[in-house]
Amino acid sequence: MPDIVVFDYGSGNVRSAQRALETTGAHVTITSDFDAALAADGLFVPGVGAFGACAQQLRSVRGDQIIERRLAGGRPVMGICVGMQVFFDSGTEHGTLVPGINQWPGQVVELKADVLPHMGWNTVTAAQKSAMFQGISDERFYFVHSFAVTQWELDVSGAFTPPLVTWSHYGQDFVAAVENGPLWATQFHPEKSGDAGLQLLANWVAYVESVK
User: Fold this and answer.
1) For the chain, what is the mean pLDDT?
2) pTM score, two decimals?
3) Which contiguous run of DSSP H or E holds residue 42?
4) Which residues are the active-site residues?
5) Distance CA 74, CA 212 (A)
6) Mind listing the pLDDT tens digit for each residue in 82-135?
7) Dist CA 92 CA 146 (whole Å)
8) Helix, strand or coil, per DSSP, at residue 210
9) Domains identified in the chain, total number
10) Please, what's the b/e burial string for 114-132 (b: 16 or more CB within 10 A of its CB; e: otherwise)?
11) What torsion, rounded to 10 degrees, do the Cα atoms 115, 118, 121, 123 define?
12) Residue 54: its pLDDT value, please?
């Protein structure tokens, strides 16, 4: 089974992520060490709290460089919750635009919903041929967030393989998950999503194993 690093950059419940990933049989380490994160078969990036703080903390331990190098070599990375949001180029906080780490174009904005945060179980509309949602496309997943990406902006005309984008709805449609080659991400918390979430993590670990 593959070696997985849960990236401990100061934002996210790394212990619950570790426990959930260990149910797949993978060997899981929690660290912020540059070389260990670069060398792992798979890198798991959690994230909670404010977009700007997460992006800043990630950069402070050169997480943006690690992610860039891993993806350039086709090495798997997965982000969850704010750990997904920071992959986009910007987010809004208190009316101010804050830079992300710019793996995908797009802006993280406050959801237009009567009640925030969006907290609890919700369905998703999984992308066709999704490896992430193999066997669990009709399940519900656990969300806790007030901000999300509501428009997918990546231009995939030409030679690029289109990413698989999964959507959900709370007040408005928003991106719930993305599979983009070696970069996977979910807005929801798979580690809090019961058996369906554990299966999704198992699907990711199986992908990591297949490309190591």
Assistant:
1) 95
2) 0.96
3) strand 42-45
4) 81, 189, 191
5) 9
6) 999 999 999 998 888 999 999 999 999 999 999 999 999 999 999 999 999 999
7) 11
8) helix
9) 1
10) eeeebeeebebebbeebeb
11) 100
12) 94
Q: What is the pLDDT of residues 87-97, one digit of tens each?
A: 999 999 888 89
What phi and psi values does residue 100 have, to the nearest 5 degrees? -95, -155
CATH number of the domain residue 111 falls in? 3.40.50.880
- Angle between helix axes 63-72 and 51-60 (nearest 10 degrees) is 80
Domain that holds residue 94: 3-211
Per residue in 145-181, pLDDT (tens digit) is 999 999 998 876 665 788 999 999 999 999 999 999 9
Do the beta carbons of residue 166 and residue 126 sit within 8 Å? yes
Pairing verdict, β 88-93 and 96-99? antiparallel
| Cα–Cα distance measured from residue 97 to residue 88, given in angstroms and rounded to the nearest whole number | 12
> Which pLDDT value is given to residue 159?
54
**CA gap 67, 38 in Å, rounded:** 8
DSSP-derived pairing of the beta strands 183-186 and 172-180: antiparallel
